[in-house]
Each structure stands twice: as structure tokens, then as C-alpha cells.
Amino acid sequence: MPPLPPIxxxxxxxxxxxxxxxxxxxxxxxxxxxxxxxxxxxWLLAHxxxxxxxxxxxxxxxxxRHSLWLLRLGYExxxxxxxxxxxxxxxxxxxxxxxxxxxxxxxxxxxxxxxxAKSYDLVLMTRYLNRSLWPALIAALKPEGxxxxxxxxxxxxxxxxxxxxxxxxxxxxxxxxFSGLEMLAYEERRLSADSSDSExxxxxxxxxxxxxFNPENHREV
Length: 221
Description:
It is a single chain. This protein is of the alpha/beta class. It has a domain at about 1-115: Vaccinia Virus protein VP39 (Rossmann fold). It has 7 helices and 8 strands; from the N terminus they run βααβαβαββαβααββ. It has helices at about 20-30, 40-45, 65-70, 85-95, 135-140, 155-160, 175, and strands at about 5-10, 55-60, 75-80, 105, 120-125, 140-150, 180-190, 200-210. Strands 1-4-3-2-5-6-8-7 form an 8-stranded mixed beta sheet. Helix 4 links the parallel strand 3 (about 75-80) and strand 4.
């Protein structure tokens, strides 16, 4: 069996002073938290045919359910998260499934970390909202590269009134944010009066970076 993939530490992470977010997510993962029940959503699976391989970036990867999915599809994956505990789970699962040689792990504070430009055929981020990061994700795409984004919108506040509104998408926000890219797929589910399913509070988008696209003209999202 190949060795566990190492976890690189980005300079944004101070091992002597872990951030509040790192401590919170490390604790949750160590207690067995499984965001999304460790499953890839049906919407993403339904659009799997659009994902044709290459080098992928999984941002805010957590325990890595999407990284493992992309590895199964044949991608080389760079997985980034603040939680060392989550990355350790991903490393172990990748080793057990024979994916370790195609996985690179980085612990980083996503408030300040930024990916290299024009480096990825696919950038994926789910259930994490950091609007200031969006321009860098677009810039990280190679020409013809795909951006896949999925997160909760404000309907979730009806199920989770404790959840901060500024951590939720506004209705239609993804369409405006990525309007300069080629739209391939979009869904915005709405929470009905009789629903308690958080999946009905999600917005999802897949866009392609056109060859002539200039990220410098797309800074405001």
C-alpha cells in the first residue's frame, strides 16, 4: 500500500495559534460529524458527464467526499481545508482506495489563501461561502476549465434561524456572480411550506471559462 499523502501547511495556518474555525471543525470531525452524510449530491452526480478529467481543486474539502469522487473519475486532486482532522480522514480514505498518488492535501485558512492562476481543469466548492474568494477561483481555471459551486441560500434560515444570513447565498446570486462565464447547468431549489429538507435550500451552478475570458474584467462578483 502506498504511504499516506502528506498534508502541507500553508503559511496562513499558525500551528501554535489555531483559528476558531480550525478548532471548531477539528472538533466536529473528531466527534464523527459527516456533512452531507458523506455522499455526493444527486445533482452533482447527474452532471458527472460534464467532468472529463485533468487536474481538479476541491476548496473547503472537509473530509473529502467530493475529492474521493473526483479521484474515482480519474482526476488529479488538490484538496484544501482549514481542518487538519478532516484532511487526515481524507488521506486515510484515499490510501485505502488506492488514490494516494493522485491527491495533494493542503491545510490553509481560506480567508487569505488563494490558488495559483490558470492551474485547474476543474474547481469545486460546496457548502462554503466566501465571496471574496470567487475571483481567485475563476482565475484558477485553465481556459475551458469548469467551476462547480453549490451552497445554501437564505431559505435555510427558516430551518436554521441560528445560521448567519451573510453565510447564505441570496436568491439568484450565483447567476450574477458568474455571469461572465459559459453556463452549463444551474439549479436553485426553494423550500416549500411543508418541507424540512435542507437540500431544498440549495443553489448549484456549473460554468465554463471561455478561452478569451479575462479575469481582470471580472473582479466584482
